[in-house]
Amino acid sequence: MEQQHELRIAVYPGSFDPVTRGHMDIIQRASRQFDRLVVAVLNNTSKNPLFTVEERKELLRQATQHIPNIEIDSFRDLLVNYMDYKQAHVIVRGIRSVTDFEYELQLASTNHKLNSEVETIFMMTNPKYSYLSSSVVKEIATFHGDVSDLVPPVVEVALRSKYRSKPAKA
Ligand code: ADP
To answer: Boundaries of each Cytidyltransferase-like domain copy (predicted)?
Structure first.
């Protein structure tokens, strides 16, 4: 009997407030390693985001239009529960620095403790983007600096209109 092929589904969770070229690099590389990659925006009420979850999802959708095996979603549950729901076994995270590593190790160990079937894999940043974070982008955009090399074009437009309505911080 022919063995049924099990889809290899991975989840790339994060805040994506907003998605940067660093995230895009990880998304592109991870999408080649799995049958399906779910990019999942964490709906975390304790942070004070610039973009709403819906806006972040829409920006991700537009920025990843050219990648066929991508799904954009959001979640507010424990990540391991969400993984079950998606029937996914792999969590993808990116690492830029030793500081990221410490935080990511703690996160991966916690998730492993909650469900040892779930595997976290790490992708090293493209050195071009090792300094790049959503916070850096927001900081530059607040003062109307050029972010065209840092974010996909749709995000650049969205940032411009956000900060047009919001004056730079005093
Ligand atoms: P979170 O709040 O979950 O850290 P982020 O949106 O900041 O969400 O990041 C999501 C994931 O993407 C994290 O694993 C982070 O380390 C990774 N990441 C962010 N920026 C980069 C980058 N420039 N290069 C590689 N990985 C990155």
So the answer is: 11-139
For the Cβ of 26 lying below 6 angstroms from any atom of ligand 1, the answer is yes
What is the pLDDT, as a whole number, of residue 44?
Answer: 83
Q: How confident is the model at residue 4 (pLDDT cuts 50, 70, 90)?
A: low
Determine which of 44-58, 97-111, 125-139 has the lowest per-residue pLDDT on average.
44-58
Question: How far apart, in whole angstroms, are the C-alpha atoms of residue 167 and residue 170?
Answer: 8
Domains, the chain, with CATH or none: 9-130 (3.40.50.620)
Distance 133 CA to ligand 1 centre (A): 7
Measured between alpha carbons, how far is 15 from 134 in angstroms, rounded to an integer?
9
Residue 61's alpha-carbon distances to 6, 37, 145, in angstroms, are: 26, 13, 25
